[in-house]
Design goal:
The complex is a heterodimer of chains A (about 700) and B (about 270).
Chain A lengths: L17 H30 L10 H14 L1 H4 L3 H35 L6 H31 L22 H31 L4 H4 L6 H12 L4 H25 L7 H10 L29 H9 L5 H5 L1 H4 L6 H16 L22 H5 L6 H5 L6 H15 L4 H13 L22 E2 L7 E4 L2 H5 L1 H16 L4 E3 L9 H6 L2 H16 L5 E4 L2 H10 L9 E3 H10 L12 E4 L13 H9 L3 E2 L30 H10 L6 E4 L2 H13 L7 E4 H8 L11
Parallel strand pairs in A: 1-3, 2-3, 2-4, 4-5, 6-7, 6-8, 8-9
Helix pairs in contact in A: 1-9, 2-10, 4-5, 5-6, 6-8, 6-9, 10-11, 11-14, 24-25, 26-27
Chain B lengths: L1 E5 L2 E5 L17 E5 L1 H15 L6 E7 L4 H10 L4 E5 L9 H15 L3 E5 L10 H9 L3 E5 L1 E4 L5 E7 L5 E7 L2 E5 L11 H7 L4 E4 L12 H4 L22 H19 L1
Parallel strand pairs in B: 1-4, 1-6, 4-5, 5-12, 6-11, 7-11
Antiparallel strand pairs in B: 2-3, 8-9, 9-10
Classes of the chains: A mainly alpha (about 700), B alpha/beta (about 270).
Amino acid sequence: MVSRTDAVTRILFEAFSAAEVRLFYLLGYAAIAIFGYGVYVQIRKYRRGAALKLEGGLWARFGAMLSSVLSHRTIERRDRSAGGAHRLIFYGFVLLFAGTATITLEYDILEPLFGIRFWHGQFYLVFSLVLDIAGVALIAGLAFMMYRRGWMRLPKLDYARPDRVPGDPDFDRPQYRREDWAFLWILLIIACTGYVLEAARLVWLQDRADIWDTRWWSPVGALLAEGMRTAGLGERGAGLLRHGLWWFHGLIALLLIALIPFTKVKHIFTAAASLMVRDPLAAQRLPRIPDSQEQVGAARITDFNWKQLLNLDACTKCGRCHEACPARAVGAPLSPRDVILSLREFAKSTLESGVLPDAAELDIHGKAPGQVAMETLWSCRTCMACVEICPVAVEHVPIIVQMRRKLVEEGAMDPLLTKTLQTIHKTGNSFGESKRKRGAWSKALPFPVKDARKEPVDVLWFVGDYASFDPRNQKVSQVFASLLQEAGVNFGILYDGESNAGNDVRRVGEEGLYEVLATANVNALAGASFKSVVTTDPHSYNTIRNEYPDFGGKYEIEHYTTLAKRLFTEGRLQVTNPLKYRVTFHDPCHLGRFNKGYDAPRELLALLGCELVEMGRCKANSFCCGAGGGRIWVPDPVGAEKPAQNRMKEAAAIPGLEVYVVSCPKDLTMFEDALKTTGNEGKFVVKELIELIREAIPARRAEEVPA
Amino acid sequence: MKILVAVKQVAALDEDFAIRDDGRDVDSDFFIRDLNEWDDFSLEEAVKIRESSAEPVEVVVVSVGPDEADESLRKCLAKGADRAIRVWDTCIEYSDSIAIARVLAAVAKREAPNMLFAGVQSSDQSFASTGIAAAALLGWPHAAVVSNLTCTPGANLAVFRRELEGGLLHEVEIQCPAVLTIQLGINTPRYASLRSIKQAAAKPIEVLSLSDLALGAADVGEAGSSSRVRRMYVPDKARAQLIEGDAAQQAARLAQIIHAFKGAAS
């Protein structure tokens, strides 16, 4: 049993001269001053960005951030071992820091001012045990991270950039590697010297019973002390060792504190802050440009808002976005990580100086270090894989689209894209077809499809460009219309009142055209009478659901998969011919990641009797077909692998696969093409889920099947 | 330096269309209106000259047409024209290319530019004569189908190239003021974003009447034209059919058709 005397406490400055103690305090204040200055410089940098008003309460944001940080939920995703190691480091560090902070609280504040002491007796002993364990956790975590960086050779930790070539000054950035290692080593040295220091103190003061008898409350220190004694270290030698090590440990800890705002260590604050200002709809709902704003898009670093500048600093180079990016996967000159890191370096070199440089020096477009090339920006498919996986809530997509807006304004884009945008402006669709022909696909049906502008309907079907004009997708549209008809759904379409929904136009960065399209559709919908909207196109679904509300269009809207599932549950559709296919399902970006519609398609497949085999990259980690962000209008480079081909190879590896199921018109186009170009034709087929439903419910009358 | 660029809002046809009751044109209900493709290139050429010039260059676009043409002029302003002029009077309707050229020449006299650019032709009427006719009326030197232009503001001479038969290039110098009709492909026209078109809506378009140009009703319309459209129509489709069967069957069928045709003709 330990006696509760004041004697049992932490040995601080024992045997130090008054001058030494003064020197230590002086250095401590200096470290804090440097830290404070660094924080000021960082905050001044963020404040040089554009203004932004956050929605939602501060406390709710704080709570969400705290829950992410404490649970390590975001850090653990798709990398459990790194998440686990980080958790050890985090909790070890937090406990050790809290321990040190409480000593300061008592020694420098509570005791001198109020005479309050609590750092002694049982409390001290328990804390010392906890801190010893925390130190073990910290060292274990650091050791794993060192092993991971040094031996695991993870591609995502390779800093070589796909948008630069060897020889470019910012190609593989060895300074980042050095900083990573320095950070790990500093923490490791602080932790290890802490233990040695503790052991030396025990040996040095082994004659004092209050210290020696309670030594096993610091088990690691005690064990080391036993070792030192066995090795022949005496009290005097231990005293000297303790004195020297005390200074070494103290100085290196102060150095770390001073360096926080200037190095990657700052992620302690920036990552937490970034998580706090997260926008859950960052990629789903892109920012509007206020009418009063002359400047369109991001041309200069100061055109980003403070939150985006903070995002840049939150990045910890973990490489998860680099790994998830479909453009990077096929060798396009884009890595979301490097867009962020480039801009971070740019912000650092321009916005951290005392005086803001001239506007000309703030241009973020180009090929110089820190700038982002247009080829990089145009490689993005806005599939949101990067935003979704980022553990610290960096929002890459709005940053990229805002930069593209500037390129569109200058006309710096592929001539085919220019042509498509002009076509959409002129005809309201990307196919350059006459508006009048938008509903022509319905003429092949044995029943008339209602014009929702002329008669009231329950369900308004927003068909979209591809499903209206692309011959292959028109067949799917006809099948879907028949299914609705057979299920007795009172539905209609807008015919030539419908325009391209604008989802991809907006993601290209042609905001003005998007405004025209969204307004036209909101007006057309206002002129129709309906209860809810259904779309077969996830792209239209996303923009109508998440972005039209900003234009005054608020509707009850669903993707066809949830409607179809309900029709089955309500018994309005019944499987009469169960399918025994072995299938895999491709989550469309805009249905899955964007709007979390993962379940309905899978439940439908189960209802139809299909055996679903998931691909490795599914649900939130689904791999983009390559058509997003307007890239369907720009051909991919000849010779290089296309994202859809990459995906087809993944599917082809499933033994006995019969059907590759999609639920997006663009997916159907992209993957049917990729099936042929990867030589998988004949091995399995690509089908719309709608087509499988049709197969499982043979039409009641032959004439209901459109030609 | 000032460059006057003559532009036209052309009509493209929708999938189905109907001929107007008088049979001389397509019913305008079926038009999809847009800026003439060639004019995109001539405007771009003028704006490029301004952008690469040290001394001030003014680019003025002019169009002869009704209110709807404002839309195309706004697009030109969005693409970088400094000013826009539209000339209209109801009696200008039914003008042929020569009458339109008379109006353009009057505008050129009023504006006194160093160069008048026009597209080689319009995509809807394809007369390819408006620009050249304006040059004749002005008494200025002219060149048609220019595919490359070097023009230094302030200099009296401009140098241009034209593509001839057999891959030959024709390099010519011309005394300013001059009229040039610009060929497709001379440059890459820039994209006018919807945002810039919206912003250009704030720029004024100067609307002139015939009297502002000291022209009368007799100078334009059918009265001022030297040609007149008689009718516009879709020709009957030629018919073809593949005769199947062996040689004897084919010959028999052929003979039958010839007899039928001869019978119809006599």
